[in-house]
Amino acid sequence: MRSHTLHTVLLVSVFSFIDPYLQGQESSGPASPTNLSASDHPWDHGEKIDIQWDDIEKNEQDKVQSYSIYSSRSANPDSFIFVGTIDADISKYTIEKLDRKYSYYFKIIAIDKSGNVSEPAVTLSAISPTRQWFDGRRFPLFIITLIFCGSVVYWIYQARTGIPLKIRKIAGLEAVDEAVGRATEMGRPILFIPGIQDMNEIQTIAGITVLSRVAKVAAEYDAKVEVPTSRSLVMTAARETVQASFLTAGRPESYNQDLVYYVTDEQFGYVAYVQGMMVREKPAACFYMGAFFAESLILAETGNTIGAIQVAGTAMPAQLPFFVAACDYTLIGEEFFAASAYLSGEPDQLGSLKGQDIGKIIVAAGIIIGVTLLTIGTIAGPESGFGSSLIDAAEYLKSVILT
Amino acid sequence: MKRNVPLFITALGGFTLIIAYFIPATQGWGEVAAIWFDILASIAFILGGGNLLKIHLKKVSDKSAGWAYSAITLAAFLTTLFVGLGKVGVNPNPQYPEYSLSGHYREIGSPFWWLYEYAFKPLTATMFAMLAFYISSAAFRAFRAKNLEAILLLGTAFIILLGRTFAGVYLTAWFPDWMSGLKIENLTVFIMSVFNTAGNRAIMIGIALGVASTSLKVLLGVDRSYLGSGED
């Protein structure tokens, strides 16, 4: 009996000694995240929920390494599914790919460097994602788009009524006839490169519109236009364009579809072919109209070496200096896109250029407003309420309205 | 009809995607359209391959100038096509050992991989390397001090080029702190981040407006020159 009592006392003593350590081990895990809340993600299709919780207190920062996030359609603790892990310095997260027909609970657990986990924090009530029909963040952009498109359509309509519209002379486009005429006189071919991108690139489309003019003039002069392409679809479109131009010029019999052909999709394979062809056939006029990359200078310098008259047009800012250095005429960005209207001279197209000017006014107004806000805000000082609100307004203009 | 149907498809697709950009439920449609385009372009590749064969076979057959290059092109094209499509020398995938064609066509050590690594890559690298010489010859022409603008260009280019070399940094390293803004590496940064960025952005704004206007003209059918002439 004494022995049994002694054992009991010893066991109690041992447990009372161990217990603080056991409890201490539990309490050595990170603190549970506090104030976990969930809300619908704004302006989405009803498949996202935002959750957020309080930042970790400074004394806990070293302890927590990451958070594990779970979601569930019921409050049953066993039904939570792992969603993802995020770093400890983040206190909000967007859960995606949810179904708006269901409501969800969310659970978050803090984990320390040793892998100890905190008590879970669970959202108190279920929430379901809500669908929005319009993306409100893009509303300012929508308004700008409407104004810009509206002005283009308005000026096209005005041009149709017969209002005279002026367009400044673009030397590169004036030179098209000169270049084709020179090739005719020299009895050499004209080379037209519509860039190295496919038909889904707007620059290729702009290049093809210039091709239509070049081919028409070439047909009138009975000159040979050669169009090697690096995409099959561009070849097909270019053939249609050249054929139609020859038809318009009244010389359909002169059209030779074999002069518009596919070379290769590979950038430098294409360049190697075109460069070799240029050296062998020595075209008198070279047109580079479309999207170009590193090959721009290789082509333009080769054309320069063989003494061809060269006209280039691209909207790739990095390639413009190369074309300017090596070509006789270069259409810089906007001029390149104005080529179609300029060459056709159709009132509809000229009207669209006028509408484009409204876009420029909007951009200029945006620049002036932004610069003024930031300048005055900086002079007033970001620490003052007035300066701070001006800088915030500039930031809103940049990050919300123009994004 | 031949022109109206493509115009209708263009307008419908274009305007739908513009509207879809503002409606959350349809914001993924752009990606679907891109996949459609990829499928179309892949099918069109057969057209390109056929055209390549036709053009070069004709050149070889006519023995026209440079026909030997065409013969080499044809040989390279057909060899690569055969080796790639036939997965020549490719081991079967370990998961499906019974299927001889289950391996990856670019398996390391396979003939296709060999062609890519030891023929295609060196050739493209050679073409790219030629750019260095062309840059030198173009720079030689562009930086001639012919007039005031050319002198400004030359001066700016000189600072930028020098500022990107160790020698340039060394040259102005002795400048005192109050003149640190004139150190060549700082001048380079200033020119690139102020003058260059301002000019670049002006061009980019023009391009963006041009792209929007051209797209609208295409969608509205005002500009039909990419489909041939403007007549139906």
Strand content of chain B: under 5%
Beta-strand percent range of chain A: 15-25%
**CATH architecture grouping of the largest domain in chain A:** 3-Layer(aba) Sandwich
Total number of helical segments of chain B? 7
Our count of helices of chain A gives: 11
How would you sum up the major sheet of chain A?
Answer: 6 strands, parallel
The overall pLDDT of chain B, averaged over residues, is 90
**Quick check: average pLDDT of chain A?**
89
Give the SSE order of chain B as H and E letters.
Answer: HHHHHHH
CATH fold name of the largest domain in chain A: Rossmann fold
Largest sheet of chain B: none
Secondary-structure topology with pairs:
The complex is a heterodimer of chains A (403) and B (232).
Chain A: H1 2-27, E1 37-40, E2 49-52, E3 64-72, E4 81-87, E5 92-95, E6 105-112, E7 121-122, H2 139-160, H3 171-186, E8 190-193, H4 202-221, E9 225-229, H5 232-248, E10 260-262, H6 267-281, E11 285-289, H7 295-305, E12 309-314, H8 320-326, E13 329-332, H9 334-344, H10 347-380, H11 385-401
Parallel strand pairs in A: 8-9, 8-11, 9-10, 11-12, 12-13
Antiparallel strand pairs in A: 1-2, 2-5, 3-4, 3-6, 6-7
Chain B: H1 4-20, H2 29-62, H3 67-85, H4 111-142, H5 148-163, H6 166-171, H7 184-220
Helix pairs in contact in B: 2-3, 5-7
Q: How would you characterize this protein structure?
A:
The complex is a heterodimer of chains A (403) and B (232). With 403 residues, chain A is an alpha/beta fold. Chain A has helices at residues 2-27, 139-160, 171-186, 202-221, 232-248, 267-281, 295-305, 320-326, 334-344, 347-380, 385-401, and strands at residues 37-40, 49-52, 64-72, 81-87, 92-95, 105-112, 121-122, 190-193, 225-229, 260-262, 285-289, 309-314, 329-332. Chain A has 3 domains: 26-122, Sandwich (Immunoglobulin-like), CATH 2.60.40.10; 138-153 and 349-401, no CATH class; 165-345, Rossmann fold. Chain A has 11 helices and 13 strands. Chain A has a 6-stranded parallel β-sheet with strand order 10-9-8-11-12-13, with helices on both faces. Chain A has a 4-stranded antiparallel β-sheet with strand order 4-3-6-7, with no helix packed on it. Chain A has a 3-stranded antiparallel β-sheet with strand order 1-2-5, with no helix packed on it. In chain A, helix 2 runs antiparallel to helix 10, helix 4 packs parallel to helix 5 (232-248) and helix 10 runs antiparallel to helix 11. The longest helix of chain A is centred in the last third of the chain and has 34 residues, at 347-380. With 232 residues, chain B is an all-alpha fold. Chain B has a domain at 143-232. Chain B contains 7 helices and no strands. In chain B, helix 2 packs across helix 3. Chain B starts with a helix and ends in a 12-residue tail after the last helix. Chains A and B meet through helix 2, helix 4, helix 5, helix 6 and helix 7 of A and helix 2, helix 4 and helix 7 of B.
